[in-house]
Amino acid sequence: MEKLTGYLQQCAWSLLLAGLLLVCAVGYAHYKAEDKQAVIAKEELTVAAGEVIKGAEITVETRGRRGRSKAERYFELTVRPDIGADQKWRIEPQVARATVEKTIGRRAQAKLDPSEGNLVYVLASEGEFLLTYGQMLKIIQNYAQVQKANSSDPLVLALAALLLGLGLAGIWLRRSLDPPDSREFKNTQID
Known about the structure:
Helix 1 (2-35) runs antiparallel to helix 3 (133-151) and helix 1 (2-35) packs antiparallel against helix 4 (154-177). The two termini are 29 Å apart. The chain has helices spanning 2-35, 97-102, 133-151, 154-177, 180-187; strands spanning 46-63, 69-80, 87-91, 107-113, 119-125, 128-131. 48% of the residues lie in helices and 28% in strands.
């Protein structure tokens, strides 16, 4: 009986720990999704201008654990400024491809965030605004809402609650299977 209760206690603590870790993982994912919603102020953006010499659609594929892969897609414009070396401007994939193609071979002005890999927030070419700050805010907020919804999946939360419940039930069952006199013996001190 002692082996059974010891095994039961190990399983119960393992389930309880797994449930707590899953709750922490969901909380962290939710926190990171809210963090993605933070947008740089329009006044803090860097202004850049030059001739767009090349445009490309970039797909970066990263492999995670257990064979999972994640692909990130974005547009990249190669811009030759009046002074200095060529720059790479990154544009979110939600912006229409035709909008990006309009800038190739033309002079363009942008407000971008260098800390995010030159992410373009405002794009204008020959006096026409192709991407406004308001449009970019909507794109970022929609992305953050999708991430937030994915991070708080009800099935994952139900699994965490189930693991926590099974762990607590196992600990309670272990205590109830342990004879009362052995519990008293363990808690007393022998002088």
